Amino acid sequence: MKPVVSFLLQLSPQTAYGNLEAVARNLSDGLEILLNYRKVKCSIFMDGPTMEMLKKTAKPLSIGKIKAGVDEGLVEFLGGGFYDPMLPLFPKDLQVRQLKKHRSKLKSFLGLEPQGYFNSSLVWEMGMISVLEECAFDYALVSEAAVREALGRNSPVSGWFTVEDQGSLMRVVPVSDELSKAIGEDDLRWREIAESYNREEKPVVVLLDLPPQAEEIVGFFERLVDFVETNEVQTWPVSYIVNQLQPEGALSNLVSAGRKLGLPFAANTCREMLVQRPEINTLQKDLLNLFHRGKGNLQGKDLEKFYEELLPAMSPIFYRNLQDDEGMRSLKVRQWGFRYLQKAAHDLDSRMNFSGLRIDVSDFMLQGMKQIWVENPEISCLVDYNQGGILRLLNHKTPAVNLVNAWHDDGGPALFLAECLLPNEDLTTEQIGVLLAGRDRLFLEHYDYQVKRESGSAQVQLSGEQGYRVGEKQGVFLVKKELHFDNGSPRIGVAYEVANTTYQENPCYFGTLMELGLLESGEGPCIVADGSKVKWDRREPFIYPDAKKFKVFDSSLDAAIELEFETPTTVFIGPIFSASSAAAPQMFQGIRVYPFWKSSLAASEKFECKMNMTLSKR
Amino acid sequence: MRADLIDIQIEDFGNDVEISLSGSLSKAQLSAVREKLDSLMSGPGVFFFLNLERAHFAVDDYLEMFLDLMNKTRERNSTMVLLFRNEELLEYFSRYKNIFEIHESREAYKSSGLSKQLKQVGVYYGKKTGLRLSPRVAIAAGVLIMGWLITLFLIIAAQGKDIADKQSQIMALESQRDRYVQEIDKLESSIGPLKRLGVVEDTSQLNSFGAIRDWVSYLKHLENTRREE
């Protein structure tokens, strides 16, 4: 019996490619090989930007051939999101916009409307059914593992099923994980696996990823043609399954966490990523904040244009726990994602003519606790008063950068303005680095907040008790932390008052920890202390004594942060690395800056210090 | 913890301050809401817009709180405006609808009457700067300033007209000069062949002629030359 396979060729989202133009040219040549052979019928998915590039680079004759191939049923183009997002992570308005934009691009490119929906991450949730139905999709491709889970069986599943939710219906076609892997990895057992799916000559859907290197794409198509010819494989596009075969039954519930996302095996949904990785969660919440603000304040064309600005930040690359520029483990990818959002924020401000200061006390992170969002036309930041008043986000809008963008392998968020006590001992620079990385001497207790408005500015006043441990001693300090924001300037004033309420002396080093996602490029000068450039190799930590002004700048991002101290201050600076499975043992994830002051903190004594932070372009 | 369920948003635009409350507000949150609003509205600002569109009040105690807040803002010569459009809130505030300033949005309030807003700003700054003007003096000062402005405008307009006249004269003279140059070129070209034949001597090219600045000097020069001869 001939194996019957529906090949689904998937091009990674455009963000995966360094040179999209070369990819599009090779793709056009590869498709020509496939269509000339005429015996391979398959389905193809590519995201919007790749499609646009293909339209731009392909010769008119090639486009004509592709159109003819579609008409003759040799090739089927699948629909999806314009940037191929994982839909359940985003509001419905943005989901629909992504799907409709991709559909209209496909229509203008090839004059066809897609019948099937595909998402390269194979994420599925029941809430997607109504959206897909609204966007005129007949069927959707889902992971076979999810269908097996829904059916409660371990045997191979092929054909198509139905799912319904809130009165909407969708046909789902499982993609065989096992056979896709076997054919993709040239496993000789593939025929045996295929037979287990091909009962009653039902085709099995095999997902093949096109290689990310442009020069390998043509070779991929040649190998595919060769494979079909040599093994006498009977092929069909995926639509054949839905259009020609009877349904296998109905599924009451279907959930798929997706593939190639870096999620733990036990994860049920892609939303697990938001719980596991605070960096991804912060990016998504920043996007939701912008979305809600835009939706509440803009209308008509302004709103549509603003939504367009948000769409690229929905690309799956920003929601994967992967390294090597494939996910958010790469500092470059995180900077990239926040750049899209800050550009959208800047656009929103100009559309709303926003000036002044906006303070929003709400559950920004959607975790059941409030945070304080402070925004002016220059900067925005998120003050987490329930966790020691740390800044979870610090966006500078004009260079479009979020400075609090480092990564921690322990799954904790990057911290900014996190107060930390170090013992008054003879510590080496390395020892300070280790203590700071350990994060167990931080003031992370809840503060009470007060917003005090002044003329042209506002203060967020935080106060509360913070537990400490210095050497053998333990106790509670009464801490007041004031953040001062101006209406239209990228400056934040910070003032501390630490009162020792105990009857024992607590000599210590008091400082504030800042973990910055900067200096990814790794070249050139990056620090100016008291007007002089300081050499730093970005590998070994160092301490700069008695600084009045300390500036860290990133030339490639065109971003800088300058700290100005009221009294001479010692500043620790060190790199943040994370583990890597790649050839390089460690990945650079940002820098740790820790300005600190020596304090005797005798019984009932108060310690006070102040500094100003100014964000600027380089 | 229930007090922590309220969402508060403050947008500060200088004289205008919009404070939005959202969430379900029961008795448990009353003191927290009162404290937050009291603190926020004691800061600078002339118009305090309380946007309650997304708030739901579970008890009547909030009415008293808003009355109290309104009195306090009046004491500070500021105005408190409630913003909402939903029926539920209209019903909730119906008892005091004549007391509270209720509008659908900030823009709706702004278009509801310019004079009362100007008056409000005047009262606020009068209080803030300690400078108080009676309406008559304010009108007189206004008329005086307007008079200055009009005079200044007239002077500028007159000067502008003068400049425009001179410019047109310059343009006319320039075009006249161009016309003369063309005419001379034409005359020169018409006597060109004669010049080449040596019939006409071009006196304009003579150095002595060119050196002589006026005819009186020239004639004196001729007479001197003859005498010497």
Kindly describe this structure.
The complex is a heterodimer of chains A (618) and B (229). In chain A, strand 6 (161-165) and strand 7 (168-175) form a beta hairpin. In chain A, strands 16, 17, 18, 19, 20, 21, 22, 23, 24, 25, 26 and 27 form a twelve-stranded antiparallel beta sheet that branches. In chain A, strands 1, 2, 3, 8 and 9 form a five-stranded parallel beta sheet that branches. Chain A is an alpha+beta fold. In chain A, 50% of the residues are buried. Chain A is elongated and about 85 Å long. In chain A, helix 1 crosses helix 2, helix 12 (278-297) packs antiparallel against helix 13 and helix 12 (278-297) packs parallel to helix 14. Chain A is built from 15 helices and 27 strands. The N and C termini of chain A lie far apart (67 Å). Chain A is 29% helix and 32% strand. Chain B is built from eight helices and five strands; from the N terminus they run E-E-H-E-H-E-H-E-H-H-H-H-H. Chain B has helices at residues 27-41, 61-75, 87-92, 106-110, 114-129, 135-197, 207-211, 215-228; strands at 7-12, 16-25, 47-57, 79-83, 101-103. Chain B has a five-stranded mixed beta sheet. Strand 11 of chain A pairs antiparallel with strand 1 (7-12) of chain B, so a sheet runs across the interface.
